[in-house]
Design brief:
The complex is a heterodimer of chains A (about 700) and B (about 325). Chain A has about 700 residues and is an alpha+beta fold. Chain A folds into 4 domains: about 100 residues; about 100 residues, Immunoglobulin-like (Sandwich), CATH 2.60.40.10; about 230 residues, 3-Layer(aba) Sandwich (Rossmann fold), CATH 3.40.50; about 70 residues, Immunoglobulin-like, CATH 2.60.40. Chain A is built from 12 helices and 37 strands. Chain B folds into 2 domains: about 250 residues, von Willebrand factor, type A domain (Rossmann fold, 3-Layer(aba) Sandwich); about 50 residues, no CATH class. Chain B is built from 11 helices and 10 strands.
C-alpha cells in the first residue's frame, strides 16, 4: 500500500494531542493543610476522575477516529501493475489529455476524463527517473504545464482541474491540440521526446491522431479499455414557423439517436419532452432499434410574444452514460423580425411610377396580420455606396435582406464589402429593370449571382417568337422554400412580362429556380453564398416590364422571398453556437450577456473594435442586451459530433523499449466508511455517558 | 522577672488594657490564701460587711471603736474575706492549632490570650497554673500543673517554643486538672474544639465535655475559649482548581475537590458542630467564648474579662 498524499501522514502526530491535552489539563490540586477536615465532604468524584484517565475506551475510539481521518486525507492506495507501458528510457514528454465533450461518458462509475487522469497518474508514476513531463489539455482553459522533473506538479494540476469541475465539454479535438503540445517539447540534444495522448477512441479522439508530429512520436493511450456503453443522444434540433397550422405555430424537429453497442437487439423506447418557458408542454415516445435514429416533431402554438426559451430533452428511467447530449436548447418565436434595406434604383415623384411602390405596398399590407414583422428603410444607390465606403461592414449591420431594386450595380470598390456581408448571412434580392447593368453585376458581384446575367431583352423579339409579345409565368415550383405554405399556383399564373434579363447557363454554379416563364427562362432564381442567400428576379418589381405587382400572388411572393432570404440561419436566434466557440456579436457598443446560469457579463469591443463573446462554455440559452434595445438571443450547445461514440482504433505505436506502469486503486473509500462507523460509536458512547451522568 | 519573660508574648496595647482592668469573677470564691477576690466567707478583708457583738476571745484589734462610741457597747467590725484565685490555663497544643500564619496562627493567638490572662492574673497576685496539651513534649511533662509564680518564665518559654503537633490528650488533662486544682479555680481551656480526639469521632467530643463537666462538679469555673481561624469559619476558597485538604493531625487521608462545590457542605457541618458545642456548654454550665484569630487581642481580652465578671453561676 502507498499513499497518494503522504504529507498528510504527518497529521498522525495529532494523535498525541488528546493524550497531551489530558496530561496538561490534569490540574494538580493545591495542598491546603486544614484543621477542620472533619467537616469536609468526601472527595468529589469528578475531580478525582479529572486527574485520572477515564473512559479509556472513548479515548481509544477518538484516537482511531483521528487516525482514520488522517489516513483518508493521505489517500492510501494499493498499487498493482497497470495495463500501460511507458517508454523505459529517460525522456521528455507531454501528457496530452482529451477534454472534449465525449470524455463525459461514464464507465464503471467514473467519467472518461477521470479515467484519463488515472491513466495520467499511472504514467507519471511509471516514468523513468530523470524524465521531464509536461501537461497540455485540449480545453483551451485547461491546465498547461511546461515539462518539469517533478511529476507531482502535473498530478496536482490534474487533480486541481478535476476538483474545480473545470471540464467544459467543448468539441476540442486531440489532433487540433497536438501542435500546441508539441511546442512544449523543443529539441534538446539527443534526448528522446514523446507525447502521451490520453483520450477516448471516438471521433475527434485518439483515432484521428497521427503516429508522430514534427518528429515527436505520439503514443495513444485510451482513457479506458472498456467499450463505450450504449447511450441515447439528442442530435440536431431545428425549428421553423408552421404557418399552415396556425400563424403562431412552430415546427420543432429533433433527431434522437441510439448509439453504441446495444445491450440487446430489442427496440428501445425513449421519451422526448418539449419544454417551453421552463414548463414541459408535450412529450412523445420514440422507438429506436439498435444503432438507429429517429426524427421527432412537435408543433406547439406559441402564446407568448417575443423570443421564448425552449428545450427538448430525453427522459430516461436510468441515467444515460453520456449526459452532455440529453437536452438541446432553442429560442422560439411566433413572430419574425426582418430588417430590409431597399435600394431604389428608379425613384419617382409619382408614387405609382416609383420602382418600389408596389413592393412597399405589399409589405405594408402584410404587417397588419402576418407573423413576419418587417422594418424597412430605403436609400438611393449612391447613398449605399457612400455608406459602404465610409462605414464598411458596419453600414450593413443588422440588415437581414438587402434589396437592389433596378440598381445599376454597386460600385466596384464596395463590392467586396457587399460580398462579405452576404457571406456572413445577409440576404440579397436583385430585381431587374432598365437601369440594371448586367455586365457591371457580372464584373462586381459574380461570385454571389445564381447565374451570370446577360443583357435585357424584350420578349417575343427572339427569332421565331414574333407571334407573342409577352411571356407568361409558369406555375411556381412549390417545393422551393419561397413557396412554403402555398397550396396552388399562388395567383401568379396570369402574370405576364414584356422584358426580362436573360441568364447565362452555367451548369457548375448551384442555383434553384423558384419561378420561371413559360418559355423556360428563369423568373426568380436563388442560390446561396456563404451563409447568405441570393435571389434574382429577372423582371421588374414594378409595372415597367411586367404586371406581376398587380397579381394576387405578388404579396405572398414578396413576403416569401424576403422570409427565405432573411432565414439564412445566420441570425443569432437561429445560430447554434458550439461550447467554447467564440461568438462575434454585431455592433460596436458594449453589451450585457446573460448566461444560462443567470450570470451577467459585459462584453466590450476588443482592440480591433469587434465584440467577441468568449464565455460560451455553458450550454443553454443566452440573452444579449444592448443599451435599452430589445434583447437578442442565441443558444450554446454541445457539438452533436461529441455524441458519436463509434470506436475507432488509434494509430499503431512505434516499437519502443517499454516499462511497466502501476495503477493505484484507492482504499480511502473503505476508510471513510470506517470513519463514519467510528463517529457513530463515539456519538453513542457520549450519549450513554450523558444519560448515565444525568441519572447520577 | 518571670512576668517580663511572659510579657514579651503580650502586646503593649494589651498590657495597657490590663493596667486598667482586673480579673474578677462575678461570684465569691474559696481560695487557698488571701488575695484580691471576694471570698465566700467572712475574713480579713478591706470591704465592710457587718457588726456583731463582741464576745470574749475575739481579737481586740477588730473592735470598731467608732461604733462603740455611738452604741456604747463593744461591737466587732466584720469584713469580707478576699481570697486568692487559681487560674488554670489548659492550652491545646495539638496539630489542629497549627493552622494559620503569623499572628493569625491559632496557637499563636491562643498563646497570646493565655499569656495575657496569666500576665493579668499574676499582676493581681493570683495563682496561675498551666498545662500544654499536645506537641512533641512527653505527656508527663505537659500534664504537670505548676504554680505560675514558680514557673511563669517557663510558661512564656513553653508558649514560645511549642510547635503544635499531635493531639491534646483532653480526657487525661482534664482529669488531672480536676484533682490537682483547688476547688473554685478558674479553668480556661483554649482550643479550637473542632476535633478534640483528632479522629473526627463524636465520642471524643463527648469525652472532653464529660471531663469539663467533672471540673464543674469540683466547683471550678470553666471558660472555653474556642479559637478559630477565619478560614475555618468562612471557607473562603472559591477557585475551580481542585484543592487537597491535608489533615493537620495527619490522621485522615486528604480530602480533594473543587472548593466551591465543597463549601456549602462544609459550612453546614461546621455550624452543626458549633451549635452542638453551644448547647452542650450551656447545658453543662460552661462558659464558651468563640474567637477568631483575626480579632484584635486587646478587645478579645477585654471581652473575656467582661464575660468572667458577668458569670455568677459557679456555686450552686
Amino acid at each position: 500500500m502507498n499513499f497518494l498524499a503522504p504529507a498528510f501522514l504527518l497529521g498522525l502526530g495529532a494523535l498525541a494531542l488528546p493524550v497531551l491535552a489530558h496530561v496538561l489539563g490534569r490540574q494538580p490540586p493545591r495542598d491546603v493543610p486544614f484543621a477542620a477536615v472533619r467537616f469536609l465532604p468526601e472527595a468529589e468524584p469528578v475531580v478525582r476522575q479529572r486527574r485520572t484517565l477515564r473512559d479509556r475506551g472513548l479515548l481509544l475510539v477518538r484516537l482511531l477516529l483521528l487516525a482514520a481521518a488522517v489516513l483518508v486525507f493521505s489517500r492510501p492506495a494499493v498499487r498493482h501493475e497497470g495495463p500501460l507501458r511507458v517508454v523505459a528510457q529517460v525522456h521528455d514528454c507531454v501528457l496530452l489529455v482529451d477534454a472534449s465533450g465525449s470524455m463525459a461518458m461514464q464507465i464503471d462509475g467514473a467519467s472518461h476524463l477521470e479515467h484519463a487522469v488515472e491513466r495520467a497518474t499511472a504514467i507519471l508514476e511509471a516514468l523513468p527517473t530523470g524524465s521531464k513531463v509536461g501537461l497540455w489539455t485540449t480545453d483551451p482553459g485547461g491546465p498547461r504545464l511546461e515539462p518539469t522533473a517533478d511529476p507531482s506538479r502535473v498530478r496536482e494540476a490534474l487533480e486541481r482541474w478535476l476538483d474545480d469541475g473545470a471540464p467544459r465539454w467543448g468539441a476540442w479535438r486531440l489532433a487540433e491540440a497536438l501542435p500546441g503540445a508539441a511546442t512544449m517539447l523543443p529539441r534538446a540534444g539527443d534526448r528522446p521526446r514523446f507525447i502521451y495522448a490520453i483520450g477516448d477512441r471516438f471521433t475527434g479522439g485518439l483515432a484521428e491522431l497521427p503516429s508522430a508530429w514534427e518528429g515527436i512520436p505520439v503514443l495513444p493511450i485510451p482513457a479506458s479499455d472498456e467499450d463505450a456503453p450504449e447511450h441515447v443522444a439528442l442530435l440536431a434540433v431545428t425549428w421553423e414557423p408552421a404557418a399552415e397550422i396556425d400563424p403562431r405555430a412552430v415546427r420543432v424537429q429533433a433527431t434522437v439517436r441510439r448509439a453504441g453497442p446495444a445491450k440487446s437487439e430489442a427496440p428501445r423506447e425513449v421519451a422526448v419532452a418539449l419544454h417551453i418557458a421552463g414548463e414541459e408542454v408535450t412529450r412523445t415516445t420514440v422507438t429506436l432499434a439498435p444503432d438507429s435514429e429517429r426524427r421527432v416533431e412537435f408543433t406547439p402554438t406559441l402564446t407568448e410574444d417575443g423570443q421564448v426559451a425552449a428545450k427538448i430533452s430525453l427522459v430516461h428511467d436510468d441515467p444515460d452514460p453520456l449526459p452532455i447530449d440529453e437536452a438541446r436548447h432553442l429560442w422560439l418565436s411566433a413572430e419574425r423580425d426582418l430588417e430590409v434595406l431597399v435600394v431604389n434604383g428608379d425613384p419617382s415623384e409619382l408614387r405609382a411610377h416609383d420602382e418600389v411602390y408596389f413592393f412597399n405596398t405589399a409589405i405594408a399590407a402584410s404587417q397588419a396580420t402576418g407573423s413576419l414583422r418587417i422594418a424597412m428603410r430605403s436609400m438611393a444607390p449612391d447613398q449605399l455606396d457612400q455608406d459602404l465606403r465610409r462605414r464598411g461592414a458596419q453600414a450593413l449591420h443588422g440588415v437581414d435582406v438587402l434589396v437592389l431594386a433596378n440598381v445599376q450595380a454597386p460600385a466596384p470598390d464596395v463590392a467586396e464589402t457587399l460580398l462579405a456581408a452576404v457571406r456572413g448571412g445577409m440576404g440579397l434580392w436583385i430585381t431587374a429593370g432598365d437601369r440594371l447593368d448586367p455586365q457591371a453585376y457580372n464584373a462586381t458581384l459574380l461570385p454571389l449571382l445564381p447565374l451570370p446575367m446577360r443583357d435585357a431583352m424584350a420578349v417575343g423579339t427572339a427569332p421565331g417568337r414574333t407571334e407573342a409579345r409577352v411571356e407568361h409565368l409558369a406555375p411556381p415550383v412549390l417545393s422551393h422554400p419561397i413557396f412554403a405554405g402555398f397550396r396552388d399556383v399562388a395567383g401568379l399564373e396570369t402574370s405576364r412580362a414584356k422584358k426580362i434579363v436573360l441568364l447565362e447557363p452555367e451548369a457548375t454554379r448551384p442555383h434553384e429556380v423558384a419561378l420561371s416563364f413559360t418559355s423556360g427562362a428563369p423568373a426568380l432564381i436563388t442560390s446561396t453564398y456563404g451563409s447568405g442567400r441570393v435571389a434574382l428576379l429577372t423582371t421588374t418589381i414594378d409595372r415597367d416590364w411586367a404586371d406581376l405587382p398587380l397579381r394576387p400572388g405578388f404579396v405572398p411572393l414578396v413576403l416569401g422571398t424576403l422570409s427565405f432570404l432573411g432565414d439564412s440561419g445566420a441570425d443569432l436566434a437561429h445560430r447554434r453556437v458550439r461550447v467554447g466557440e467564440p461568438l462575434v456579436l454585431g455592433g460596436d457598443t458594449p453589451v450585457l450577456v446573460t448566461m444560462p446560469n443567470g450570470r451577467e457579463i459585459s462584453v466590450r469591443p476588443d482592440k480591433d473594435g469587434a465584440l467577441v463573446l468568449k464565455e460560451t462554455y455553458l450550454p443553454g440559452h443566452y440573452r444579449v442586451r444592448r443599451n435599452d434595445a430589445d434583447a437578442t438571443v442565441f443558444v450554446v450547445e454541445v457539438d452533436p459530433a461529441e455524441s458519436t461514440t463509434t470506436a475507432a482504433d488509434p494509430p499503431a505505436s512505434p516499437e519502443l523499449e517499454e516499462a511497466s506502469s502501476f495503477v493505484s486503486k484507492p482504499q480511502w473509500r473503505a476508510l471513510l466508511l470506517g470513519l463514519v462507523v467510528l463517529l457513530a460509536i463515539e456519538s453513542l458512547w457520549r450519549w450513554r455517558r450523558a444519560v448515565s451522568g444525568t441519572k447520577r | 522577672m518571670s512576668a517580663e519573660a511572659l510579657g514579651s508574648l503580650v502586646p503593649e496595647e494589651v498590657r495597657a488594657l490590663i493596667r486598667t482592668q482586673s480579673l474578677k469573677l462575678g461570684r465569691p470564691i474559696h481560695g487557698r490564701g488571701f488575695g484580691r477576690h471576694a471570698a465566700a466567707r467572712i475574713g480579713p478583708g478591706r470591704e465592710f460587711r457587718d457588726h456583731r457583738p463582741y464576745v470574749p476571745g475575739d481579737d481586740p484589734r477588730r473592735l470598731d471603736w467608732k461604733a462603740f462610741a455611738r452604741r456604747d457597747r463593744l461591737v466587732l467590725r466584720q469584713t469580707e474575706s478576699e481570697d486568692e484565685l487559681t487560674l488554670a490555663l489548659l492550652l491545646d497544643g495539638g496539630g489542629g492549632m497549627a493552622y494559620g500564619a503569623g499572628a493569625e496562627r491559632k496557637f499563636t493567638f491562643a498563646a497570646a490570650v493565655a499569656a495575657s490572662l496569666a500576665y493579668l492574673a499574676h499582676g493581681q497576685g493570683d495563682a496561675v497554673v498551666y498545662a500544654l496539651g499536645g506537641g512533641p513534649l512527653p505527656p508527663n511533662t505537659t500534664l504537670r500543673l505548676r504554680r505560675a509564680s514558680e514557673s511563669l518564665a517557663t510558661l512564656g518559654e513553653a508558649l514560645r517554643s511549642h510547635r503544635p503537633a499531635g493531639v491534646a490528650p483532653w480526657p487525661a488533662l482534664l482529669e488531672a486538672a480536676t484533682h490537682a486544682l483547688p476547688p473554685g479555680s478558674l479553668v480556661v481551656v483554649l482550643s479550637d474544639l473542632l476535633d478534640p480526639g483528632g479522629r473526627g469521632l463524636p465520642e471524643d467530643d463527648e469525652r472532653m465535655l464529660a471531663g469539663l463537666q467533672h471540673l464543674r462538679a469540683r466547683r471550678h469555673d470553666v471558660l472555653l475559649v474556642q479559637v478559630l481561624h477565619r478560614d475555618e469559619v468562612d471557607f473562603p476558597w472559591s477557585e475551580d482548581r481542585p484543592l487537597r485538604f491535608v489533615d493537620l493531625w495527619d490522621r485522615r487521608p486528604p480530602r480533594e475537590g473543587a472548593a466551591l462545590a465543597m463549601r456549602a457542605a462544609y459550612l453546614d457541618a461546621l455550624q452543626t458542630h458549633l451549635r452542638a458545642w453551644d448547647e452542650e456548654a450551656t447545658r453543662r454550665g460552661l462558659m464558651l467564648e468563640r474567637l477568631t484569630t483575626r480579632a484584635p487581642l486587646a478587645e478579645t481580652i477585654a471581652r473575656l474579662i467582661r464575660r468572667l465578671g458577668e458569670h455568677r453561676t459557679s456555686l450552686r
